[in-house]
Every structure is written in C-alpha cells, then in structure tokens.
Amino acid sequence: MTSRRLVALLLGALLLTPACASATDHDSSAPSARTPAEEPAESPKPPVAVHSLTAAEVQQGWWGWAVSAEEERSPVLDTTGRWCAELQRENLWYLAGTTGGKVVERKCTVPVGVPVLFPVVTRFGEATECMDFMDTAKGSATLDDAPLTAEPIGTTPIGLVGVPGNAFGEDIGNTWACGLWVRLDPPAPGSHELTIRGESGAMGFATGVDYHLLVAAPTPTGAV
Q1: From start to end of 134-204, where are the E strands?
Q2: Minimal CA–CA distance to 173: which of 160, 158, 163?
C-alpha cells in the first residue's frame, strides 16, 4: 500500500469518529422510564366528617362493611381483635360489636387522625322489627372511663349485598337498620380503653366488647 493511500484512509477514519461519538451522546441523553419509586404518591383522603353523616350513611356504611367480610375473618365474630383492620376505609374506622352472648375482649390498632364509628347495639330486618327493637334498646360506651354519647338512629332503609360466607346472609337486599351509634372524633395518639355495652329487651339481645385501642401511625410496608 502506498503511503499516499495510507494517509487517505487515516483521514477518513478521523472524519468518521466525531459523527459516531455524536450519535452515542444523543442516545444517552434520551429520557429514561420513570421507576415506581419516582411515581407521585397519591394524596391521602381527608378524614370523614363523621358528625355530618346522615342516618343512612352511618348504617349503610357500617352494615355494608360488616357483611363484606367472610365469616372466618369477620370483625363482628372476632374474639381477639385479629380482624380489627379487615376491609377498613382509609379515612373512617369502624369498630364492631358482637352477635350477642358473653363480653369479648379485643386489641385493635387505629390509625392516627382517623375518626371512629361504632354501634352500641344495632340490627337490621323488617321495619316493624326495628321499631320494636328500638323501643327497649339501651346501652353505653366509655373511652378511658369518660362516657360517650350514644345516638339513637331509628328505622332507616338501606340496601345490603353480602359476600359469600359472611355472618349475616348473602341475599339481604333492601332492608331496614336501626341502633344506638357513637361517632368519635380521631382519638389522641396512645393507648385507650373503650368499653361498649348494649341490649334490647324486646329481642332478648345483649352485646359487650372491651377494646384495648392503640392509636398510632401505620407501619410502612416492609418495615420491621
């Protein structure tokens, strides 16, 4: 190969080099896919204005929650508090009574800043059954020995669809609900003792729960 031809080949290689480098630089500057960790977090829902809920919203919401759990995971049938967090809403926390019988003791962790709603005594069924039930319904609730207001809510139409295997039946449909209810502003962080006792003489029904509540921030997923 002549020296003149060799020089020409070298010059050609040098002229190509900047173009290759430019193409590589362009590719590296392309935007990369956003990782899950970089996705904007969904804003938390504000707490429910529990004292502004209508009679229907109180009873439809709570009973809808109660019939949405299978019997083996039912917060109403729970004897320890293991299923206290089952199917809870982000911005309103329900507590359960019992289906009657002896007083149950439960431990339950409630998120900070979330209001609480629960029945002292309640039922659903025919309108006449609810009216008879409310004639003799009575009960009380205390938080750290301070009495809470138990509000009577009379016969109210609601519609329920139970999941298969729930404790109250699947084909409920349109029905009536009634009871004595407690609407509780978000409890202060820390440990609390909640006592619930209710009964209705007309139905020979009595219920009672002693809750050991811990109000605390939720543990982040994956934390130890």
Answers
A1: 137-143, 146-147, 151-160, 173-184, 190-200
A2: 160
129-170 pLDDT, tens per residue? Answer: 999 999 999 999 999 999 999 999 999 999 999 999 999 988
Give the gyration radius of the chain's Cα atoms: 31
- Class of residue 31 by CB neighbours under 10 A (exposed 0-12, middle 13-18, buried 19+): exposed
DSSP annotation of 1: -
Structure tokens at 92: 């309103």
24's enclosing H/E stretch is helix 3-28
HSE, CB side, 13 Å, CA atoms: give it for residue 211.
31
Neighbouring C-beta atoms of residue 53, cutoff 10 Å: 19
> Region 201-206: what's the mean pLDDT?
85
